[in-house]
Amino acid sequence: MEWNCGMTHNSAKADPAPLGLMGFGMTTVLLNLHNSGIVPMGGAILAMGLVFGGATQFVAGLLEYGNKNTFGMTAFMSYGAFWLSLVVLLFLPHWGLVAPSSPALMGSYLLMWGLFTAIMTIGTLRASRMHQVVFSSLTVLFLLLGLAEILEQPMLTVIAGYEGLFCGFSAIYLAAVELLAAQPGHVAAPVAVMVPPAEVAA
User: Fold this and answer.
1) One-character DSSP codes across 98-123
2) Residue 167's CB: how many other CB atoms inside 10 A?
3) Which of 64, 79, 55 is nearest to 18 (CA)?
4) Of 21, 18, 41, 19, nearest in space to 30 by CA
5) d(CA 195, CA 145)
6) Among 7, 11, 15, 76, which residue is least crowded by beta carbons within 10 Å?
7) What is the DSSP letter of 16?
8) With pLDDT > 70 as the criterion, what percentage of the chain qualifies?
9) Cα-to-chain-centroid distance, residue 178
10) What's the whole-number average pLDDT of the chain?
11) Which residues span the membrane (predicted)?
């Protein structure tokens, strides 16, 4: 039986996970610099969400499909779609195509992503500790942002922003570990991978 099936990379092809994780992590950091009140919203955040967090992550998911990695495919394609949909949500009202989403609707949108991420977090329980950190902190981030919208509490958004910075940098760290570990001569940094018990011969 293959340990940690669907999470590890078992292909002779290039591993798309570092690309997807870096796209997710860097975009999450940028957006949460805004949520925490450190920087204002601007074109750099939206462009990053559209191209690196959105389109590039989606491509990483397609590559994971080719590697027969269901978890990686679902994660990267879903969060790529999240970033694309978030940018569309912000742009459509400015184009006059739809009315802005109400706080209750926007909060519900974020909470649905929190529910999805909680399910994905369960899928990391047999993966590395860093996978668990990234997905569990992302679950908390969506929960805080959703409640901030529904309750109309700006301070919750600020708290979510700092928590989101932790989440984003965690994903960047994991991406760097997986990227450098694949390069000859590099010593892999720890991610606390769970090791299965050894089989004892009868």
Assistant:
1) SPPPPHHHHHHHHHHHHHHHHHHHHT
2) 26
3) 64
4) 41
5) 35
6) 11
7) -
8) 85
9) 15
10) 87
11) 38-63, 70-92, 104-125, 132-151, 157-176
Rounded to whole angstroms, the Cα distance separating 57 from 124 reads 19
Measured from the Cβ of residue 8, the count of other Cβ atoms closer than 10 Å reads: 17
Cα gap 34→38, rounded to integer Å: 6
Q: Please, what is the angle between helix 129-151 and helix 103-122, to 10°? A: 160
pLDDT digits (tens, 9 = 90+) for 48-61: 999 999 999 999 99
| Spatial separation of the C-alpha atoms in residues 107 and 33, rounded to whole Å | 20
Task: Report the pLDDT value the prediction gives residue 187, as an integer from 0 to 100.
Answer: 52
pLDDT digit string (tens) for 148-192?
999 999 999 999 999 999 999 999 999 999 999 877 655 555 555
What pLDDT does residue 97 have? 83
> Which DSSP symbol is given to 14?
P
**What are 186's two structure tokens?**
């590099």
* Rounded CA separation 196/126 (Å): 9
Structure tokens given for 116: 């999805």
Q: How many CB atoms lie within 10 A of CB 183?
A: 8
Tally Cβ neighbours within 10 Å of residue 187. 6
